[in-house]
Amino acid sequence: MAIELKMPALSPTMEEGTLAKWLVKVGDEVKSGDILAEIETDKATMEFEAVDEGIIGDILIAEGTEGVKVGTVIATITSDDDDKASPAPAPTAPPAKAEAPATEQKAAESGAVKAPTGTDALVPASAPAPAASTEIPEGTAMVGTTVREALRDAMAEEMRADDRIFVMGEEVAEYQGAYKVTQGLLAEFGPRRVIDTPITEYGFAGIGAGAAMGGLRPVIEFMTFNFALQAIDHIINSAAKTNYMSGGQMRCPIVFRGPNGAASRVGAQHSHNYAGWYASVPGLIVIAPYDAADAKGLLKAAIRSEDPVVFLENELVYGKTFDVPQTDDFVLPIGKARIVRPGTDVTIVTYSIGVGLALEAAQKLADEGIDAEIVDLRTLRPLDKQAVLASLAKTNRLVVVEEGFPVCSIASEIITICMEEGFDHLDAPVLRVCNEDVPLPYAANLEKLALIDAKRVADAVRKVCYR
Amino acid sequence: MARSARPSAAKSPVKTTARAKAPAAAVDDPTISSSLADEAAFALRSLQQAHANNKRYDASDEELLTFYEQMVLIRRFEEKAGQLYGLGLIGGFCHLYIGQEAVAVGLQSALKEGHDSVITGYRDHGHMLAYGIDPNVIMAELTGRGAGISHGKGGSMHMFSTEHKFFGGHGIVGAQVSLGAGLAFGHKYRDDGGVCMAYFGDGAANQGQVYEAMNMASLWKLPIIFVIENNGYAMGTAVKRGSAETHFYRRGTGFRIPGMDVNGMDVLEVRQAAEVALEYVRAGNGPVLMELKTYRYRGHSMSDPAKYRTREEVQDMRDNHDPIEAAKVELLKRGVTEDKIKEIDKRIRQTVAESADFAESSPEPDAAELYTDVLVGTY
């Protein structure tokens, strides 16, 4: 019986990939451990190994095919027991890309598609793009750029302009970044400025902070902010407080950056959103962008800042493509929120990955006649209170959407601001849509239950609108 | 076989350029020969040997007088700080450096002030005075006045002078070691020839981040001298009750950092050890770890009654090992007159009295200072 070889998921977030190269051809005998193909994900090129013995029967997806969904049957192996006399004929022409949906369908039928998870709902493919930022002059040429590339471009541009800037972290140089955010930096800037560290967050966060105190401009990458807990002492006690404790004499211009929040099925220790923790500390700047333009413009601003910045990225949006203005030096102001969807009936305040969910929910709500305004905070400290209050004064109803725990959160802070300074404008209690108040579970169904989604956002909006 | 190779390794000169030769017998086995070569090249004990061969710095009378004066300044300054604390003029924590003066003076006299970086923990007054920072602004910081070096917002534990390249003044035990490695990283990055001296105590030497910093400092050959001021007690815990390896100079071995065991109660021994260490570090060989055996006469902080040690122990150190007394005896032996020494003592008393007056009479920071210096930029 033929064994179906399916497009493998090579990372927790991989949904599709490119079949870069076949290393076997029809009729080849293979055994367990042989490399069959090279598959490119958005992060890396991976080798695809055989786990069964047999003869390659069919090659169903030609090399060079992009966008092959995980679970798609890409080849078959006939085992020794099969009739060797009639191998499937080699395809006379490489299968066209158009066949991919069909094979995907086949995979779905065989039950091989990746189980839906909570994080699938976090990055809806259908989410509308945010409205173009008012900071971008009309008529500016735009280029489709992934968030990952935008972050890299921001670092590269700043590094070209200022020799004091260096990038340090685990796997940032030779490996090109654990999430490929620093791709290409080593080649351009060399090992003096792109520095691989051992796995010692506390130590290299301290080295970074010390280098900043001594006059350099470090960009410290944490593979994820979960690991930055090992280093939080230096972020808070060394970086955030020194300027104040020294009466303004000793600065610490440093950027701590990396992915934050839930990824996909990685369990409780790799899924925490720390925004509220850092945003509670005077002396820090905390930035959490959603789209690629904000990621670029705000990372450039963060690197130029004289203050220590915690720059919270999100692994699930690294691969998403957005328009980025094609200008020489696109820098955005720190501390300014952005209206990503203007509306009149209700305000949704959110940031980072929550923006996509809010946009998706708003689209649904529009069909029901509810016109939601979405405020993307972008900077969490200092918080753009005025933008929140101005939108509240306009809509009189407000929901906060945050992919993170509800207690002592950014949502809590926004609600406090509305109570203290926006009470007269409120026509309904402010609601928050946050993750469930439990450590994030691994099981796909439980993860889905724990994480926010567009439906929960829409439900909360209807509630504050009394609909 | 490894053992037979060691003595010859230990005898190899300080210079790391001396290439190790694997014994012929080991050549057949590549793993053994490379590990032997490694051992020899490491020369872990070479700096200690160089120090042992020539223990004391050959100071001129003038230099020794300067060291004496600096040590007396620290002693009198700290005594005055203790007094002001007792009067309620200094609050919070106040950690005095009395007894340890020879360490900061001996080491920092070998540095280029304003070029080489110095960083330490919260027992920081002495290191600042040894780097030529004005006693007035230090004392005014202790009393929490607007004229203090941190505008009264740092206090005893948090003082900095970027002009002198004194980088604090850190309250989290061990944090200054990683930060110091960062300062050293900066010297190497800019290739400015500077060295960082990072001081920490025998207590901080047990913090995990110290070893993270040592690993990277050695891996990247950062120009840093790790200085462990072993005063015998981590707050109230005697070294032997808190440290499995009480010979702290050995603590760098796992990172291939040569260690030096130095008598921290003799300013000339300290200075000579600094010469050896600095030559090694400035040549681009990477870090050195120095353990300075010293003693603090006072408690850990002003609020510590120091019941964990005997009165006799403290008295013995004061009577028989005091670095200032020893320097004074040596000066007299060299023929420096009693009057000359008295004149220095008098001048220092005057300086310290003035700093106390300044610290008492300066106004507290303006209330508006509460909100300044949180961030540098406006957003």
Automatic annotation (TrEMBL), chain A:
One of its GO terms (molecular function) is pyruvate dehydrogenase (acetyl-transferring) activity. It catalyses: N(6)-[(R)-lipoyl]-L-lysyl-[protein] + pyruvate + H(+) = N(6)-[(R)-S(8)-acetyldihydrolipoyl]-L-lysyl-[protein] + CO2. Residues 2-78 form the Lipoyl-binding domain. The lineage of its organism: Bacteria, Pseudomonadati, Pseudomonadota, Alphaproteobacteria, Sphingomonadales. Pfam families: Biotin_lipoyl (PF00364), Transket_pyr (PF02779), Transketolase_C (PF02780). Residues 79-139 are annotated as: Disordered. Residues 95-109, 124-133 have a biased composition (Low complexity). PANTHER family: DEHYDROGENASE RELATED, PYRUVATE DEHYDROGENASE E1 COMPONENT SUBUNIT BETA, MITOCHONDRIAL. Transmembrane segments: none annotated. PROSITE patterns: BIOTINYL_LIPOYL, LIPOYL. It comes from Novosphingobium hassiacum. It is an enzyme of class 1 (oxidoreductase). Keywords: Lipoyl, Oxidoreductase, Pyruvate, Thiamine pyrophosphate. Its cofactor is (R)-lipoate; thiamine diphosphate. It comes from the Bacteria. One of its GO terms (biological process) is pyruvate decarboxylation to acetyl-CoA. Heterodimer of an alpha and a beta chain. Its EC number is 1.2.4.1. The pyruvate dehydrogenase complex catalyzes the overall conversion of pyruvate to acetyl-CoA and CO2. This is Pyruvate dehydrogenase E1 component subunit beta.
TrEMBL record, chain B:
The pyruvate dehydrogenase complex catalyzes the overall conversion of pyruvate to acetyl-CoA and CO(2). It contains multiple copies of three enzymatic components: pyruvate dehydrogenase (E1), dihydrolipoamide acetyltransferase (E2) and lipoamide dehydrogenase (E3). It is an enzyme of class 1 (oxidoreductase). Heterodimer of an alpha and a beta chain. InterPro entries: DH_E1 (IPR001017), PDH_E1_Alpha_Subunit (IPR050642), Pyrv_DH_E1_asu_subgrp-y (IPR017597), THDP-binding (IPR029061). It holds the Pfam family E1_dh. Coiled coil: none annotated. GO terms for biological process: pyruvate decarboxylation to acetyl-CoA. This is Pyruvate dehydrogenase E1 component subunit alpha. Its cofactor is thiamine diphosphate. The gene is pdhA. One of its GO terms (molecular function) is pyruvate dehydrogenase (acetyl-transferring) activity. It comes from the Bacteria. CDD domains: TPP_E1_PDC_ADC_BCADC. Its EC number is 1.2.4.1. Keywords: Oxidoreductase, Pyruvate, Thiamine pyrophosphate. Residues 70-367 form the Dehydrogenase E1 component domain. It catalyses: N(6)-[(R)-lipoyl]-L-lysyl-[protein] + pyruvate + H(+) = N(6)-[(R)-S(8)-acetyldihydrolipoyl]-L-lysyl-[protein] + CO2. Residues 1-23 are annotated as: Disordered.
